[in-house]
Amino acid sequence: MEANIRTELHGDELRQAKTSVGLAAELRASIARGDWIQGEKLPSVRRMSEKTGLHRLTVFKAYGMLKEDGWVESREKSGYYVIMPRPNEERIASRRETIDAHRHDPDPDAPANLAAVEDEALSPLPALLGELHSVDCAYQFSQALIDPLLLPNTYLAEQAKQVFDRYPRVLGTYAPLRGDEELLEALRRYLSEACGVDIAESEVLVTGGAQEAIHLACEALVRPGDAVLIEQPSYSVAIEMFRHRNARLLPVGIRPDGYRMDEVEALMRRYRPVLFYMNPTFHNPTGWCVPPEQRKQLADLAETYGCILVEDDAFRDIYFGSPPPAPVYGYDTSGHTIYVRSFSKYVFPGLRIGCLAAPPPLMRRLLAAKARSGGGTPLLNQKVFAHHFQSERSRSHLHKLRIALQLRKEAMETALAGSGWRWHSPSGGLNLWIELPEGLHPERLLADSLGGRHTDTVAFVPGSFFDPDGQADRHIRLSYSLLNERQIAEGTARLRAYAERQTKPPGRSAF
Amino acid sequence: MEANIRTELHGDELRQAKTSVGLAAELRASIARGDWIQGEKLPSVRRMSEKTGLHRLTVFKAYGMLKEDGWVESREKSGYYVIMPRPNEERIASRRETIDAHRHDPDPDAPANLAAVEDEALSPLPALLGELHSVDCAYQFSQALIDPLLLPNTYLAEQAKQVFDRYPRVLGTYAPLRGDEELLEALRRYLSEACGVDIAESEVLVTGGAQEAIHLACEALVRPGDAVLIEQPSYSVAIEMFRHRNARLLPVGIRPDGYRMDEVEALMRRYRPVLFYMNPTFHNPTGWCVPPEQRKQLADLAETYGCILVEDDAFRDIYFGSPPPAPVYGYDTSGHTIYVRSFSKYVFPGLRIGCLAAPPPLMRRLLAAKARSGGGTPLLNQKVFAHHFQSERSRSHLHKLRIALQLRKEAMETALAGSGWRWHSPSGGLNLWIELPEGLHPERLLADSLGGRHTDTVAFVPGSFFDPDGQADRHIRLSYSLLNERQIAEGTARLRAYAERQTKPPGRSAF
Fold first, then answer.
1. Which of A357, B85, B151, B342 would bridge A172 by S-S if both were Cys, CB 3.0 to 4.6 A apart?
2. CB atoms < 10 A from the CB of B373, how many?
3. Which of B87, B168, B215 minimises the CB distance to A308?
C-alpha cells in the first residue's frame, strides 16, 4: 500500500492533531497499530502538511520527535522511514546532550530553515529541562527547590538519629507496600485536621515523592490513545509521563481566576478523558489558585463524565497570607479523585516522601502499579519523616519557611518593578510566571543569559517547557525559592540587562 | 463485522497462543489495535476453543483475566463484551483479596466446573503472592528474606548515624538522577574488583533496589507485543511487569546445568525478542547456576540477534563454597547487557538500594525512564549504604551470612531426607526448589498447611507462581533464609505431615 493512500485512510485522525506533539502522538499510535510498517516511507513533509492542514514546520517537528524516539529514521535526501519498535544500537536514539538554547522558530517560508529544523532532531522538552537544571550558573532561578539554608539541617539530623534508637531494626526491615502503619495513621490524621478530608487509613498510600504518585496514577489509569486533560501550562515531568504513555493530551487553560469551566465540561463531554491531571492550588508554574466554587464543580463534572481527577497538591503548605481553599478531593463524594501530596520537599528533599489518597477501587489499581514498579517506599525514610512530621517543630519550621519565601517573592517583584514585564502576583508557591513584552523571545533570552561571563549567568525556564503542546510561549518561570533576597535582586537585575540589550536595535550591542 | 469473522481474521495469531496467559495477551493486543471494539461480543468459549485449538478451560481462564483487567465485562448468560479501556468504578475490577488456596484445575469435561472457573475471575498470580507473604503463619518458608536476627542491627544503626555527621545536609539535598557520585564510584570499583567487570563510572545507575532496575529495563525497552525471553520458572514480579506491558513471553527452561542453548538460539532467531530477562546465578526460585561456557555463548547470541540481556544478579553474594562464575555482563563486548544488582537485601532491606550497569546507548533510555517514573534515589539511603559498603565490616558480615545460610539450607535438607521429595541442592541463594511426588498438589498442600491449627501453619510458594505461562507445576519453593535451624526442622516436619495426610486414602484423615 502506498504511503499516500495510507495518508488518505488516516487523514481524519491526523487532521485532528493541532500541534507537532499531537501529530507525533497520532503517528506513533498509527505505527503501533501497524498502519505503517517496517521500512515504509512516511509521506513527505509537504504532502503531510497538505493532508493535515498543519504548517510544514509543525510536521517537521513531529517527524523529528518520532526520529528522536526511535520510531522512524531519516535517510538523506529521501525522507522518513518507519523502523521496527525494537531496541538495538541503531534504534536507540541518542538524545541530545547539550542545550541548544539558541534554537528558535525559523522563518517558516525559508526552505533552508526547515532543513535546519530537520537536522536538529528536536528533543522532547523535559530532557532539556533536566539539562537546564544542571547548568552551572551564577543565579539559579530555574529550579523550584527550597534553599537548603532555610532548612534546620543540624536539628533535623539529630532528630533523624533518634529514629535508630526508637526502631533499632529499621534498616533491616522491608516496609509494607502501602506504607508504614504509623506514618499512614499520621497522614490520615493530618489530612483530616489540616485539609478537612476525612478518609480511612486504608485510603492512603506512601510514595517516594509526589512524582512517583503521579506516575502511579498514569500507569494505573492511562492506556495508549486515552484522552487526558491537562492544564496549559503544566508540570513538565507530568507532561512527559503522559506523552510517553501515548496519551492524547487535551490542554485546559489556567488563569489567575481558575479554569474556564465551560471549556472543561465541553472537553469532558466530547473526549471522555480518563483523567484530568491538575494542580489547582498555587499551580506550577503560575502560582495561581482555583477558587472554591470551581472545585465543587470539578468534583461534579468528574462524577458526571467518569473522569478521574488527579489533584497534585504539592504546594499547599506554602501560602502567603491565608491558607488556600480545601482540596478538590474534599468536595468529591463519588470517589473520582486521586489526591497527591508532596511532603519532604520543604524539609527533607533527601528523603523523598509523598503520599496519595484514593478511594478503594482506585487504590487497588495504584497498589498493583506500585507493586510492579518497585515495591514499598524504604522504611527508614518513612520513619524519619514520620518522626519529624508529628513533632511541634515541623509546624514552626513551615511557619518560618512561609515568611522567608514571601520575603523572597517580594524581593523578586521589587527587582522587576518598572521592567514592563507582567505577572499576577501569586499568593503561594515557589514561582513567578512572567509574560515578557513583545520582541523578547524566552529561548533567546535564556541563551543570552547563560552565555555571558560566568559571574553574570542567569538560569530560568522558558514557558514552552510547560506547554503540553510544546508550543512557543511568551512566558518565563522565575523561581524565588533557592536564592536569598540579595542574590534575587542581583540576578534579576542581570536578567533585565540581558533583556534590554536584546531589544536594542542590532549592531548596538556586543552580542 | 461479526465476531466470528474477526476470529477467522485473527485466528492465526490467536492459534499461536499456547496458554491462557498467552491468549489473554493476544486478545489484549487485538482489542488495543481495535480488532474488537467497544460493546462487541467476544466469540463464545466453545467457538474460540475450536478456532485456537486451545482447551475450553484455557479460553475461560483467558477471558477471566481480561475481565479482571477491565478489558471485557461478562453479561449473565450472554458472554464477554469488550469495554473501552477507560477507568471508572464499573471497570476497575476488584482484585480478589483472599487466597483461594483450594483452587485447582477442575475436571475439564464438567460444564459445572467451567462455570465455577468463570465465576472466580482468576487473579494474576503476583497479587496472590503478595497476599501469601502477608499471611500470618507459624513457619514462614514463602518469603526469600534474610532473617533480621542475622543482621548486625545495632552496629548498622550506629554506622548510619555517622552519616549525618559526615554529611550534615544529607536530608536537605536531592540526589542526582544517576546517583550520588561517591556511591557510583564505589560501585564501579566493586564491579571491577569483585566481579571482573570494568566499566566507566558513567555506566552505573543507582536504583531503589533490583526491582526498580528491572522495571526501568522493561519501561525503556519493551513495547506492547514485543517478544521477551524469560526463564521458566522465573521471578514472579518480573513476570507480572512484562505481562503488564503486554509483552509476548517466551519461556526458556532452566535446569541444574543451565539452559538448552539451542532452544535459546532458536527462539532468538525466530521471534527476535527485544530482551531476555534472566537470573543465571543462584537463580530464583531454583538456586541453580548457569555455567561459564553458556555465559559466553549468551553474550554472542545477544550480539548476533540484537537481543538485550537483562541479567538480574541479585544472589551473587550468597554462595556456599566457591564464588560463582563471572556475570554474563563480563563476557559481553558488544554492549547488549543490562546488569542488575541488589545490594541492600543482605544488610539493609529498609534502605532499598540496588544498581544497574549498562552501556551508554541503553543507559540514556534507562535514565529517561528513571526521570519519568520518580527521579533520583533518595540521597540519605545512598549515603548510608555507601558508608557501610566501603567498610571492612561489610565483607565480614557477608562472610558470616553465607555460613549461617548454608547451615540453614543444610538443616532444611536434613529435615527433608527420606520424604521422597526431590531437589538439586543449590550452591547459593535462599531457596530450595522441590519437586513433589505424584499425587501431591502444591496448591492443595498449601491450603492444608495454612488451614490447620495456627501453631502448625506453614507457608511456602507453589511452583505455578513462578511460571511465565501460569501453568500448574509439581514444584514448590521453600525459603530457608528467614527462620533458624530449629524452626526449619520443626516447620519442615509439619509440612511433611500435611503431605502424608494428603496422600492417604480419603476417609482416613480428618481433612
1. B151
2. 24
3. B87
What value does the mean pLDDT take over residues A206-224? Answer: 94
**Does residue A19 belong to any structural domain of this protein?**
yes
A322 close to B (CB below 8 A)? no
Task: Return d(Cα A49, Cα A52) in angstroms, integer.
Answer: 5
Residue A90 CA to residue A333 CA, distance in Å, equals 51
Q: Is A508 a member of any domain?
A: no
Please indicate, yes or no, whether residues B186 and B333 belong to a single structural domain of this protein: yes
Which of A117, A115, A98 is closest to A447 using CA atoms? A98
Q: Does residue B358 sit in the same domain as residue B220? A: yes
pLDDT for the residue numbered B346:
85
Residues in chain B: 511
> Predicted ipTM?
0.74
**Percent of chain A at pLDDT above 90?**
56
Same domain (yes/no): B432, B334: no
Q: Which three cell numbers stand for residue A263?
A: 471549556
pLDDT of residue B506: 59
3-state secondary structure of A400: helix
Q: Which pLDDT value is given to residue A105?
A: 32
Residues B172 and B310 in one domain: yes
pLDDT at residue B122, rounded to an integer: 30
Nearest-CB residue to A375 (from B165, B209, B379) = B209
Residue B473 identity (one-letter amino acid): D
CATH number at residue A112: 1.10.10.10
| Number of domains, chain A | 3
Tens of pLDDT, residue by residue over A486-510, are 999 999 999 999 999 988 765 544 4
Which one-letter amino acid corresponds to residue A481? S
Does residue A162 form part of some domain? no
Q: What domain range is A419 assigned to? A: 129-145+395-503
CA distance B169 to A477: 27
Q: Which of A272-281, A369-378, B394-403 has the lowest mean pLDDT?
A: A369-378
- Residues A365 and A401 reside in one and the same domain: no
| Window 218-237 of B, Cβ < 8 Å to A | 220-221, 223-224, 226, 237
Which of 35-94 (A) contact B at CB < 8 A? Answer: 85-89, 92, 94
Is A282 a domain residue? Answer: yes
